[in-house]
Amino acid sequence: MLAIFSGAVVRAPEELVQAGNRTPTPKKSANRLFDTFVRKFSSSVAINIDPLARISYTHETESLMKPRSFAVKDDIFCTFEGALENLASLKQQYGLGKHTNEVVLAMEAYRALRDRAPYSTNHMLSHLVGKFAFIIFDRSTSSVFIASDQDGKIPLFLGITADGCLAFSNDAEILRDACGKSLASFPPGCFFSTNTGLRSYEHPKNKVTAEMAAEEEICGATFKIERPNLQATAE
Questions:
Q1: Most CB atoms within 10 A, among 49, 119, 135, 231?
Q2: What is the pLDDT at residue 116?
Q3: Residue ranges of the DUF3700 domain (predicted)?
Q4: 90 exposed, middle or buried (CB, 10 Å; 0-12, 13-18, 19+)?
Protein backbone atom coordinates (compact mmCIF):
# COMPACT_ATOMS: atom_id res chain seq x y z
CA MET A 1 0.00 0.00 0.00
CA LEU A 2 1.06 3.58 -0.61
CA ALA A 3 -0.25 6.95 0.53
CA ILE A 4 1.26 10.32 -0.36
CA PHE A 5 0.23 13.58 1.29
CA SER A 6 1.06 17.15 0.32
CA GLY A 7 2.59 19.70 2.64
CA ALA A 8 -0.84 21.34 2.91
CA VAL A 9 -2.04 18.26 4.82
CA VAL A 10 0.93 17.16 6.91
CA ARG A 11 4.27 18.46 8.08
CA ALA A 12 7.09 15.98 7.61
CA PRO A 13 9.06 15.05 10.75
CA GLU A 14 12.08 17.30 11.06
CA GLU A 15 14.30 14.28 11.73
CA LEU A 16 13.58 12.95 8.23
CA VAL A 17 14.46 16.33 6.74
CA GLN A 18 17.76 16.31 8.66
CA ALA A 19 18.53 12.74 7.57
CA GLY A 20 18.10 13.73 3.94
CA ASN A 21 20.25 16.83 4.34
CA ARG A 22 22.95 14.83 6.14
CA THR A 23 23.38 12.41 3.26
CA PRO A 24 22.01 13.97 0.05
CA THR A 25 20.76 11.27 -2.34
CA PRO A 26 18.70 11.30 -5.54
CA LYS A 27 14.95 11.55 -5.02
CA LYS A 28 11.77 11.36 -7.08
CA SER A 29 8.70 13.57 -7.06
CA ALA A 30 5.42 12.39 -5.55
CA ASN A 31 3.98 11.90 -9.05
CA ARG A 32 6.87 9.68 -10.10
CA LEU A 33 6.66 7.68 -6.87
CA PHE A 34 2.95 7.08 -7.38
CA ASP A 35 3.44 6.10 -11.02
CA THR A 36 6.25 3.72 -10.07
CA PHE A 37 4.06 1.94 -7.54
CA VAL A 38 1.17 1.58 -9.97
CA ARG A 39 3.47 0.24 -12.69
CA LYS A 40 5.15 -2.22 -10.33
CA PHE A 41 1.79 -3.61 -9.20
CA SER A 42 -0.28 -3.71 -12.37
CA SER A 43 -3.45 -4.80 -10.56
CA SER A 44 -3.25 -2.02 -7.97
CA VAL A 45 -6.13 0.36 -7.32
CA ALA A 46 -5.14 4.03 -7.47
CA ILE A 47 -7.11 6.90 -5.93
CA ASN A 48 -6.00 10.44 -6.75
CA ILE A 49 -7.45 13.00 -4.33
CA ASP A 50 -5.72 16.01 -5.81
CA PRO A 51 -4.12 18.18 -4.70
CA LEU A 52 -4.03 16.76 -1.17
CA ALA A 53 -3.53 13.00 -1.29
CA ARG A 54 -2.92 9.94 -3.41
CA ILE A 55 -3.59 6.40 -2.22
CA SER A 56 -2.94 3.04 -3.86
CA TYR A 57 -3.14 -0.56 -2.71
CA THR A 58 -2.76 -4.00 -4.21
CA HIS A 59 -3.54 -7.60 -3.30
CA GLU A 60 -0.35 -8.74 -5.01
CA THR A 61 2.18 -10.32 -2.61
CA GLU A 62 -0.25 -10.09 0.31
CA SER A 63 -0.33 -12.76 3.00
CA LEU A 64 -3.51 -14.75 3.63
CA MET A 65 -3.05 -14.06 7.33
CA LYS A 66 -2.48 -10.34 6.76
CA PRO A 67 -4.82 -9.27 3.95
CA ARG A 68 -5.09 -5.75 2.57
CA SER A 69 -8.34 -3.86 2.13
CA PHE A 70 -9.60 -0.41 1.20
CA ALA A 71 -12.81 1.50 1.85
CA VAL A 72 -14.18 5.02 1.57
CA LYS A 73 -17.24 6.51 3.23
CA ASP A 74 -18.29 10.07 3.99
CA ASP A 75 -14.97 11.43 2.70
CA ILE A 76 -12.94 9.09 4.93
CA PHE A 77 -10.48 7.01 2.89
CA CYS A 78 -8.78 4.05 4.56
CA THR A 79 -6.38 1.32 3.54
CA PHE A 80 -5.73 -1.46 6.06
CA GLU A 81 -3.30 -4.37 6.18
CA GLY A 82 -3.47 -7.16 8.74
CA ALA A 83 -6.06 -8.74 10.99
CA LEU A 84 -7.62 -7.90 14.36
CA GLU A 85 -7.90 -10.78 16.82
CA ASN A 86 -10.67 -9.05 18.76
CA LEU A 87 -12.69 -7.87 15.78
CA ALA A 88 -15.91 -9.47 17.10
CA SER A 89 -15.81 -7.60 20.41
CA LEU A 90 -14.83 -4.35 18.70
CA LYS A 91 -17.84 -4.60 16.39
CA GLN A 92 -20.06 -4.83 19.45
CA GLN A 93 -18.25 -1.92 21.09
CA TYR A 94 -18.83 0.34 18.09
CA GLY A 95 -22.31 -0.98 17.30
CA LEU A 96 -21.35 -2.39 13.91
CA GLY A 97 -22.87 -5.25 11.91
CA LYS A 98 -21.54 -8.79 11.99
CA HIS A 99 -20.16 -8.53 8.44
CA THR A 100 -17.97 -5.51 9.27
CA ASN A 101 -14.31 -6.08 8.39
CA GLU A 102 -11.11 -4.51 9.71
CA VAL A 103 -10.95 -1.56 7.34
CA VAL A 104 -14.50 -0.45 8.15
CA LEU A 105 -13.84 -0.94 11.85
CA ALA A 106 -10.76 1.30 11.61
CA MET A 107 -12.81 4.00 9.86
CA GLU A 108 -15.56 3.89 12.49
CA ALA A 109 -13.04 3.94 15.34
CA TYR A 110 -11.43 7.00 13.74
CA ARG A 111 -14.83 8.64 13.31
CA ALA A 112 -15.58 8.11 17.00
CA LEU A 113 -12.21 9.61 17.85
CA ARG A 114 -12.88 12.63 15.63
CA ASP A 115 -16.47 13.30 16.68
CA ARG A 116 -16.58 12.32 20.34
CA ALA A 117 -13.90 14.51 21.88
CA PRO A 118 -12.22 14.10 24.29
CA TYR A 119 -12.25 10.43 23.29
CA SER A 120 -8.65 9.25 23.81
CA THR A 121 -6.46 8.26 20.86
CA ASN A 122 -4.34 6.09 23.16
CA HIS A 123 -7.46 4.36 24.49
CA MET A 124 -8.85 3.67 21.04
CA LEU A 125 -5.64 2.26 19.56
CA SER A 126 -4.67 0.20 22.61
CA HIS A 127 -7.95 -1.71 22.22
CA LEU A 128 -6.93 -2.94 18.75
CA VAL A 129 -5.40 -6.38 19.26
CA GLY A 130 -3.63 -8.07 16.37
CA LYS A 131 -1.22 -7.44 13.52
CA PHE A 132 -2.11 -4.27 11.64
CA ALA A 133 -1.15 -1.04 9.98
CA PHE A 134 -3.63 1.40 8.52
CA ILE A 135 -3.66 4.76 6.78
CA ILE A 136 -6.64 7.13 6.92
CA PHE A 137 -7.20 10.35 5.00
CA ASP A 138 -10.15 12.47 6.04
CA ARG A 139 -10.96 14.82 3.17
CA SER A 140 -13.59 16.68 5.20
CA THR A 141 -10.91 17.93 7.60
CA SER A 142 -7.84 17.56 5.32
CA SER A 143 -6.16 15.39 7.93
CA VAL A 144 -4.40 12.05 8.17
CA PHE A 145 -4.32 9.36 10.83
CA ILE A 146 -1.91 6.43 10.61
CA ALA A 147 -1.14 3.67 13.12
CA SER A 148 0.80 0.44 13.53
CA ASP A 149 0.41 -2.42 15.99
CA GLN A 150 2.49 -2.59 19.15
CA ASP A 151 4.85 -5.27 17.81
CA GLY A 152 5.34 -3.82 14.34
CA LYS A 153 4.20 -7.03 12.66
CA ILE A 154 3.13 -5.14 9.51
CA PRO A 155 6.07 -3.33 7.90
CA LEU A 156 5.43 0.37 7.32
CA PHE A 157 7.82 3.11 6.25
CA LEU A 158 7.64 6.87 5.83
CA GLY A 159 9.71 9.19 3.70
CA ILE A 160 9.91 12.60 2.05
CA THR A 161 9.75 12.93 -1.73
CA ALA A 162 11.76 15.36 -3.86
CA ASP A 163 8.89 17.87 -3.83
CA GLY A 164 8.37 17.69 -0.06
CA CYS A 165 5.40 15.33 0.15
CA LEU A 166 5.21 12.81 2.99
CA ALA A 167 4.76 9.21 1.82
CA PHE A 168 3.85 6.04 3.70
CA SER A 169 4.20 2.52 2.32
CA ASN A 170 4.86 -1.10 3.24
CA ASP A 171 7.31 -1.24 0.32
CA ALA A 172 10.67 0.02 1.59
CA GLU A 173 12.39 -0.36 -1.78
CA ILE A 174 9.96 1.93 -3.61
CA LEU A 175 10.20 4.59 -0.88
CA ARG A 176 13.99 4.36 -0.78
CA ASP A 177 14.23 5.05 -4.51
CA ALA A 178 11.93 8.06 -4.16
CA CYS A 179 12.97 9.45 -0.79
CA GLY A 180 16.67 8.65 -0.52
CA LYS A 181 17.88 8.94 3.05
CA SER A 182 14.78 10.88 4.10
CA LEU A 183 13.36 7.50 5.06
CA ALA A 184 12.50 5.69 8.30
CA SER A 185 10.61 2.68 9.55
CA PHE A 186 7.32 3.53 11.24
CA PRO A 187 7.84 2.76 14.95
CA PRO A 188 5.66 0.03 16.53
CA GLY A 189 2.93 1.09 18.93
CA CYS A 190 2.79 4.58 17.44
CA PHE A 191 0.45 6.78 15.45
CA PHE A 192 0.90 9.79 13.21
CA SER A 193 -1.70 12.49 12.73
CA THR A 194 -1.91 15.93 11.19
CA ASN A 195 -2.49 17.49 14.61
CA THR A 196 0.06 15.63 16.72
CA GLY A 197 2.79 14.36 14.44
CA LEU A 198 4.39 11.08 15.53
CA ARG A 199 3.35 9.83 18.99
CA SER A 200 3.39 6.59 20.98
CA TYR A 201 0.04 5.20 22.10
CA GLU A 202 1.72 2.22 23.79
CA HIS A 203 3.76 4.56 26.01
CA PRO A 204 1.85 7.86 25.75
CA LYS A 205 3.96 9.66 28.36
CA ASN A 206 7.19 8.98 26.50
CA LYS A 207 8.47 11.05 23.59
CA VAL A 208 9.25 9.62 20.16
CA THR A 209 12.78 10.62 19.21
CA ALA A 210 15.02 9.84 16.26
CA GLU A 211 18.62 8.80 15.80
CA MET A 212 20.55 9.28 12.59
CA ALA A 213 21.30 5.88 11.07
CA ALA A 214 24.68 4.63 9.89
CA GLU A 215 25.62 5.43 6.30
CA GLU A 216 25.25 1.80 5.19
CA GLU A 217 21.69 1.54 6.48
CA ILE A 218 18.76 1.80 4.05
CA CYS A 219 16.92 4.26 6.28
CA GLY A 220 18.42 7.60 7.16
CA ALA A 221 16.85 7.76 10.61
CA THR A 222 15.48 5.43 13.27
CA PHE A 223 12.56 6.46 15.45
CA LYS A 224 12.55 5.20 19.03
CA ILE A 225 10.37 5.67 22.07
CA GLU A 226 12.22 7.21 25.00
CA ARG A 227 12.26 4.99 28.06
CA PRO A 228 12.22 6.46 31.58
CA ASN A 229 15.57 6.50 33.35
CA LEU A 230 14.95 3.76 35.90
CA GLN A 231 18.07 4.60 37.88
CA ALA A 232 17.07 8.24 38.19
CA THR A 233 13.56 7.18 39.18
CA ALA A 234 14.92 4.90 41.90
CA GLU A 235 17.06 7.69 43.31
A1: 135
A2: 80
A3: 2-225
A4: buried
